Amino acid sequence: QVQLVESGGGLVKSGGSLRLSCTASGSIPKIIVMGWYRQAPGKQRELVAHLTRGGSKDYGDSVKSRFTLDRNDARDTIYLQMNSLKPEDTAVYYCNARSEGDRTIDETWGQGTQVTVSS
Fold it and tell me: Which of 63, 72, 76, 84 fits a disulfide with 67 by CB distance 3.0 to 4.6 angstroms?
């Protein structure tokens, strides 16, 4: 079992920056992929960025070159640095982890943190 605790988020003006953190606990060695998704009102949840156990990163098209995902293994934490924020980045951001279960891939979600970008 994996547990995720998020921090960061808040209100920022367009063009500003925020940093989100997500700390994992529990069966950390079984985590295969860890990252962030977001969901805006009336829209489907979408990938923001994720990082594989091997270190490969992938970003959603709308955030490439503006957001950076990093990992601090010593703290079992990933960080999402969000720069040049736009009003369309406003959403609830969820930390996500996929880990090896007994026979399946387990998926864990954080509680979500609100990011609001004002114009």
Answer: 63
